[in-house]
């Protein structure tokens, strides 16, 4: 009887290991494509990009503040449309600990500079010259806005144009609870 | 139910057909046979022994050859269905338009095919489940049969019971001389048989390892399957693609921290080649000789963040050609595609007096990085008010650009000359000039444009390739062992009455076994053997003949 029990145990073990291996590979391959994309709840990938004044912006420097991360291009119609609203809301929320950061996708400084002048943008605009940050955030359509809370976690990913009201709501949602957090 | 004790005293597991020790038939089935079934040496196939608990039932299900064959057939049929129409991965439209594409191109069948999910069959969970079940079946069937077989083969006794000997296909019985065993041993050894003698009995064996062939090839298959499964582990398998523009540094997808600069794309053709009729028919007039991208691969210093390109280090410079990928840390970058002269890189304009056609100087604009202004001398300069890399038209009087790529560049210039110190504005696109006032003294006359090529590269990394090779190799070794070698055995026994009992067995190629037996008979005095199976068949034929 001892032998029988042992054999049953071995068989059960082998079957479990095999079933586990197959289950794991199936689930991973089904999730595979999703896993490569940035998702809500992920830690926002850190990056460093240079703005139009030559200053470096590193995401982790904004820890403790909400970051309203907007990916855009000058050729993108909805991007142009939401820029003035973002500019106005930035003026309101900057003092409340929400940093607006616009990431231009692989364009020339000239185009970005002209655009900033034309729209009078007050928030920093950085250029992702190599597409590295675009890949890290798996950005496909423009505009895409990633909301990052003061803890550095992605709380929402918005693709497409936003109204001013939505922009205000989004900025509100990532406002630090301590309103003085940005005054370090 | 646990065991069967043979007459010889050996205790066999339940389900054994032939006693492992002496070879006496133990099951009723075997006792009724004239020739024993030597599959798995008559040992108890493990799954045939117990069938009580759930675990045993699942085990037995996967151990079944019938189930295994059914799984193979299902896998084959499913895989074949996936080849009926191109999979979504290979169709020239995006995933969002796939449904419409299948219906449009393949009609009602395409629509159903897509709706059933057959257009992306190989990544569906159910296909992977079937392949997984097949893998389980292979593993369990191998354990279930391989282990008892191995035990029987290694525990073989030299002396077998008469009933075992007489139930072999090739047998002989008759008088013998005292030297027969010694003579046979010498000859068999010459024929490279492994001979064991014990108490008036002889067992000669050759190529026993061939019995392990099927199990070895199963091991190979399992390694192969495991390698494919490993691809889902992050970092093991990368398959990405990128467009690299000449003169640009781009982050390499799938290769964190690496950047690629495309120095130049080169397309060369065979020269002086005559155009054949076949080429004419297909609209081909030249044949490409070389597709090449000269690149520089950069890497960020350790610990640098994405986007930080301030301290890139050159890793290597290389000319990627077809079949000559750039390789770096397990990654390979292959030349896959190209776009020739699709985008412009530079445009040169002459600041020209419209009346006299006199030029005040030329400026060249880098279309990927234009300057805000171009100074010719103290009083002559050109300001760029607007740049539209892919000019698509005016909207509310404002020029629009459709993308960031300079495929149809246009500019808003402000020209300052000694004659016009206030500046004149002019909108200049390809074969298009718009002047706000309509009476400018100067114009920006197009002189020249430089085109740029774009190279399509794929980035591959596959850590599973060595494993796939090992699995494939082991599989082939197993097949070869099982196909080209046969396990041959001969038993010779001196009986108490002075006669000799002989039996021979092989798992395949009986013809060669008989030749071996004949060769032994030339040197040792053996009785004439009979092939019991051939005899049975003859008998059946005769009976059948009479029946008619």
From TrEMBL, chain A:
- One term of GO molecular function: oxidoreductase activity
- Where does it localize? Cell envelope
| GO cellular component entries | cell envelope
Q: Species name for this entry? A: Caryophanon tenue
Q: Which GO terms describe its biological process?
A: cytochrome complex assembly
Instruction: Fetch the Pfam families from UniProt.
Output: AhpC-TSA
What name does the UniProt record give this protein?
Thiol-disulfide oxidoreductase
- Signal peptide from the UniProt entry: none
Which keywords accompany this UniProt record? Cytochrome c-type biogenesis, Disulfide bond, Redox-active center, Signal-anchor, Transmembrane
**Where is each Thioredoxin domain found?**
38-176
Automatic annotation (TrEMBL), chain B:
Which cellular component, as a GO term, is one annotated location? membrane
Protein name, entry field: Cytochrome C biogenesis protein
Matching entries from Pfam families are given as:
ResB
InterPro entries hit by this protein:
Cyt_c_bgen_Ccs1/CcsB/ResB, ResB-like_domain
**Membrane topology, record value:** Multi-pass membrane protein
Q: What is its main location?
A: membrane
Localization recorded for this chain is: Membrane
Sorted alphabetically, the keyword list is: Cytochrome c-type biogenesis, Membrane, Transmembrane, Transmembrane helix
Q: What is any one GO biological process for this UniProt entry?
A: cytochrome complex assembly
